[in-house]
Amino acid sequence: YTLREEEENLNQDVLGTDFLQRRLHPVFNCPDMSPSPTVPTSVEHVKAADVKVIAALGDSLTTAIGANGSTILSIPLEFRHVSWSIGGYGTYQNVITLANIFKLFNPKLLGPSPVMTFHGKPTTVNETGFNFAVTGHNTLNVSDQIRHMIDTFKSYPGLNFQEDWKVVTMLIGMNDICDYCKNEALFSPDSFIQHMTEALDMMMKEIPRTIVNVVQILPMKPLREVQRPTLGCQLQKTFCSCLVRPEENSTELKELVEVNYEFQRRLEKLLHGDRFFKKDFAVVLQPYLENTGPPRLPDGTLDLSFFTADCFHFTVKGHEELAKGLWNNMFQPEGGKEMIKTFSEPIKLICPTKV
Predict the structure, then answer these.
(1) Angle made by CA atoms 86, 87, 89, in degrees to the nearest 5
(2) Could you confirm whether 313 is annotated as catalytic?
(3) What is the pLDDT of residue 237?
(4) Is 176 among the catalytic positions?
(5) Is 272 annotated as catalytic?
(6) Which residues of 98-115 are buried (b: 16+ CB within 10 A; e: fewer)?
(7) pLDDT the model gives residue 85
(8) pTM over cut 0.85
(9) Residue 114 and residue 88: Cα distance in Å, rounded?
(10) Which pLDDT value is given to residue 355?
(11) Selected catalytic residue, list 176, 179, 195, 319
(12) Are strands 277-278 and 281-286 parallel, antiparallel or unpaired?
């Protein structure tokens, strides 16, 4: 294995040549893809084609670290343009992301991420689009992302802050679990809920005409099973030491699994009812990942094609399933939202029902 091979792989990673050669997805059409005759004033009447702006908040899952790479060299790369909730690369037929699905309904959608970024290097909105996620962020940082988002919305050419309907997707909290053993008070369920409440209150108070998808965090224990005998896999230990380092039946691991569950339970409790709901604003918990098990091959072993070189993040294949599950949850009523058991069976997209 030579450096030249590594270099060729990097070219492939960065330029995404493997990605451009993928088979196109079949066209996705719905019976009604038109906007409302007049811009709706109530959040309950917003159709997919009424959405003018898309944005995302979160951590490395949303910056899409390593997602289109095949080697350890791709780990510092943020493949935002293929990120599940906001990637804007090509069209839906090239890559399925929430933004690319919404683009089918409104081709003028503002905010999809256009290109890749480099972790740790300052970025501009021209590179990130409205993907305000920051690799490594904990829930305590998410209000900073929201402040950045609000400032950007207010100054962005062509965006009507008061009138345009916006969809914001937020998935945060997994790093809190990864860091829990380093500071149990800072990353406690209480602390998580406090920071989530402040973040959602800030959006509700300051951003008109917005639907916020809060995506329920995943059960993280199965990530311990993702192993390859590579250097990249050692990175798991740095990204999520509290999860990866404890022994299989240790009390530390049991406690962490309990904390993970408590985060989920408390988030559900916070978002149950209409605490974050008014005429032109709604926060909706999208629970599809709550019980998701890792993707497995028919022989029961883990399907590693869903995981990046660091054995922790998702590849484009994983991002596409995350995107489809989220889209479907958005158009399913509370109590009737589909839960994904495993990513092994590809999710089928649904069409929005008539409003």
Answers:
(1) 150
(2) yes
(3) 81
(4) yes
(5) no
(6) bbbbbbbbbeebbbbbee
(7) 98
(8) yes
(9) 5
(10) 54
(11) 176
(12) antiparallel
